[in-house]
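Blackboard transcription, Thursday session:
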Amino acid sequence: MTMAKRDTYTPESLLAVAVAVFNERGYDGTSMEHLSKAAGISKSSIYHHVRSKEELLRRAISRALDGLFAVLDEPGATTGPAVERLEHVTRRTVEVLIAELPYVTLLLRVRGNTDTERWAMERRREFDHRVAALLKEAAADGDLRADVDVRLATRLLFGMINSVVEWYRPQRGNAATSEEVADAVINTAFAGLRAH
Amino acid sequence: MTMAKRDTYTPESLLAVAVAVFNERGYDGTSMEHLSKAAGISKSSIYHHVRSKEELLRRAISRALDGLFAVLDEPGATTGPAVERLEHVTRRTVEVLIAELPYVTLLLRVRGNTDTERWAMERRREFDHRVAALLKEAAADGDLRADVDVRLATRLLFGMINSVVEWYRPQRGNAATSEEVADAVINTAFAGLRAH
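(Written on the board underneath:)
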């Protein structure tokens, strides 16, 4: 057993450690023992901060969801033509995803075994529906191509956006900036790759 | 213990059972005991068909990779302008992904803990590089928008294509056909969602 270090964690810094472990081992595969080892403090010290592993999950997921839902209330998401609000939401979703990478990664990986996970999935669906509604409105305005199937387009747009958590590694020297990735997503999804 | 049923499995039908269990529990989380229960035959019956769990993984992943790499040898992928070959490969990749859904799902989820998984990841990278080379060629021909970053575009294209395994459920009554999904991917990625 390693010597436990002094507990100087804040709720935020302990959460960051927990999220890293959840993402590496999976939430189900993580025990309080694993968290205690990764944080270098005893289990009872962890229980001083939180009541349970699930509370850590709930806090981490709330952070991701708060970031994403805040985008929907920004002026760019609430005023102007639907297609521009849609582009704004797409751009800002990519930026939040990169700013909160480990938290959004965790959110996208939960599978619904606990109340917290089911709540997370429900809120994700709500977010997707809000974006789908924008797509539908933009299509009704005639600003999307006539042959766009709104349901499939929503899936593919999120497929593209969410894939960022699978490959974006900010620590790589040649990593694109958050803005460059957002530009690439906007350009690909809305303008298409083909020269016109 | 449930009564073992008579072993009437072919290599293919046993593989289908194993892949379903791998996708549900994760490859690491699956034991020969789990496979024996799911198949309803004894472990020694399974060992009559294959030497190990890893052999089942190798066969399943080979099936996915063979389907994907075959696309690169099709006439549509070897003749004509690069941008059309790229569109052909994109369309056919989506179709193979849907036709071989559980096998490609497994391929996309492996994380590299065994030799077979590392080999799978290496072959996936090789496939991605072949597609990236087509993108590069199409960009050099002036058939992609000038501001397309080939590396990011390849990531986003595969993000969109690979997301299909996360949401496509053929058993749903209202599921789009493989052709409709392929059309939606092609239209979104190459033409873009915006009306021009």
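Lecturer's comment: Chain B touches chain A through 40 residues (CB under 8 Å).
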